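Need tokens for this chain, all 233 residues.
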Amino acid sequence: MIETIFTWLSEALYENTGLALFASFGWGVLSILLSPCHLSSIPLIIGYISSRGKLSGKKIFLISLVFSVGILITIALIGLITALMGRLLGDVGQYGNYLVAGVFFVVGLYLMDIIKLPWDAMTLTGTKATGLWAALVLGLLFGIGLGPCTFAFMAPILGVVFSTAGENLPLSIGLLAAFSLGHIGVIVAAGSLTNVVQKYLNFADDSKTLLWVKRVCGVLVILGGIYLILTVN
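Here are the structure tokens for all 233 residues:
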């Protein structure tokens, strides 16, 4: 079933523009759903949002979006740098994975209420950006370990982009944009669902249920860190 989907999406990239953009978007969605590396971003952002207390739907959406954009920025930079160095796209080596795994462990322990982190120090005094800067930093750091996973799913798209960029630059840009939208769309949707959960639980700051949701997310984030270490070449 999965192989059939992969084959269809790969072939659709060479069809008309609309179908190609849809296929690229689909690759972006699958890059999250079918990758253990990327799936760990979901409990990470849900746990982080839960730790911020009661937030509006708009603030939750913005935090999820900023986190996702941070991931894409790092992935793009790493892809460019590793390509210029003549290395496999996104390959940051074992130390990059260790760095991200360390971040996962710290954040996971924070979500489990074992340690404290000064999130409020990562805001701008007098602004409404509370929580956004920390989300951006988390996204930037998280993106370091996602290079190989991401570019594995991007390979079919990059093949089309590199072959058509000279004669159809708008299509090449559109394919990359569609992949990015699919990629961040899953994370933003998952993060935004936190608002639905809060309303369903009749959220209060001392909500025991939400406390356990945060702790479970912490455990999943730590497991994501362990996975990154175990997959180091």
